[in-house]
Amino acid sequence: MGNLTLLNPTTTNSSDILNNIEIKIFPNPTENWLTINSDNLINKEPLTIEIYNGIGQQLIRHEIIYSTSHLNYKIDVSSLNTGVYLLNIISNYQKLT
Fold it and tell me: What is the pTM of this model?
């Protein structure tokens, strides 16, 4: 449909467990697929990925269970209109926005 643009990700609490993990989100902006990639995840716990629009409506929610320290996850965002969106990555310990 259009371009999805994400704001720069930042951590909400520097003392939490995801603070030392590098997570790449690309391409930004994107039109069809958004990739979330990390090579150094720890704990192998479930992650939740949420995408919100500018007025706070949740448009996409994915629960991810992974069994290795590597994550390469693609989200279809082709149905979203052109705009700026907020992406949350949530673990049991931290929320990255």
Answer: 0.77
